[in-house]
Design brief:
The chain has 14 helices and nine strands. By secondary structure, the protein is of the alpha/beta class. Helix 8 (194-203) links the parallel strand 7 (176-180) and strand 8 (208-211). The longest helix has 19 residues, at 260-278.
């Protein structure tokens, strides 16, 4: 069992609303451009896209943009990693610590994407609690800042060992646990088990962050009622950074909804930031799926979604935004 003299400060627990809202790590979406907007609209803490320890170990240059960060987010950012082999975790922890630019490292134990599972990573590891404990014990002394993990209920309905894995996290000195209250076999469908979040929040001494289908005031209220220390928002933030401000307004008994002009301005900002950050070719590919939700509520939204899905270059993106402006 890991011991330390003083508990680490968890900055997002000081949310002005009293209930922190975190941006989930989502592959292909939560790069620097979206994270920047989500922080501006009220996200208390953010995570990078999940990052392979194998890619770090073998020096894959495509990993560098995934872990790139801006100075203004360093105190509110964790880098999420996934892998299986201890040697790659060992190397990745040293590499990331030497590189800096973040407040913590988060271990992915919940991803249910097939290629991640085939690599015995993500939620696959929940079947190997002894190995998970070894990873915790290896990484905790190396990570000077926050160390957390994101888990699911279990690999399937018959193997729901979230309390065991969360208990190991607590015993080995992790600072908080995020629980996506579905199993691996449920993926992103099915009901959220709010009772499981409540049970984890009651039984653990470290903070538990509730996750799963948080997208409106009703779903957030259900997370709040579990006694969790915060909520993590994932897919609802794609093309909708406004969700954080909207939910925070609701927590304060107020309302907020952006008008079409504000939505268009932020759509344009994210698109231009993606071009600047990723380069035109890569950005256009990412825009085709990452920006479509912004179009919800616009006149002729279906026509603009089709244009965005077929986007070929930055010029076409700016032309589309000009046409959207005429629809306001």
């Amino acid at each position: 069992m890991y011991t330390q003299s003083m508990p680490r400060e968890i900055p997002f627990l000081k949310s002005e609303t009293g209930f922190p809202l975190l941006l989930a790590p989502i592959a292909g979406f939560t790069g620097l451009p979206l994270r920047t907007l989500c922080r501006e609209y009220g996200a208390d803490f953010v995570f990078t896209e999940l990052t392979s320890t194998n890619a770090i170990y073998y020096g894959n240059k495509r990993t560098l943009p995934i872990i790139a960060s801006a100075p203004e987010e360093h105190s509110r950012l964790s880098i999420q990693i996934f892998g299986h082999d201890l040697k790659t975790f060992d190397y990745a922890a040293d590499f990331l610590t030497n590189r800096g630019g973040f407040a913590g490292i988060d271990l992915n134990l919940g991803c249910c994407v097939k290629k991640v599972l085939r690599a015995k990573s993500g939620c696959y590891l929940m079947q190997e609690p002894d190995h998970v404990q070894k990873i915790f014990r290896l990484l905790r002394p190396k990570i000077k800042g926050l160390f957390s993990c994101k888990i699911r209920l279990g690999y399937d309905d018959h193997n729901q060992n979230y309390l065991q894995i969360a208990g190991l996290a607590e015993d080995e000195g992790l600072d908080f646990v995020t629980l996506h209250a579905r199993t691996r076999s449920q993926a992103f469908g099915g009901e959220i088990d709010y009772a499981a979040i409540a049970k984890a929040a009651r039984e653990l001494r470290i903070p538990v962050i509730g996750n799963g289908n948080v997208r409106d005031q009703e779903s957030l209220s259900r997370i709040v009622s579990t006694g969790a220390s915060g909520a993590m928002i994932g897919r609802a933030a794609i093309g909708n950074p406004f969700v954080f401000q909207s939910l925070k307004a609701g927590l304060s008994g107020k309302t907020y909804a952006p008008d079409r002009a504000e939505v268009l301005a932020v759509l344009l900002r994210q698109g231009e930031a993606m071009i600047s950050f990723h380069g035109e070719q890569a950005a256009v590919r990412l825009m085709r799926k990452g920006l479509i939700p912004y179009l919800r509520g616009f006149a002729a939204a279906a026509r603009f979604r089709e244009r965005l899905a077929r986007l070929e270059n930055a010029g076409e993106f700016h032309e589309m935004c000009d046409d959207l402006r005429r629809e306001l």
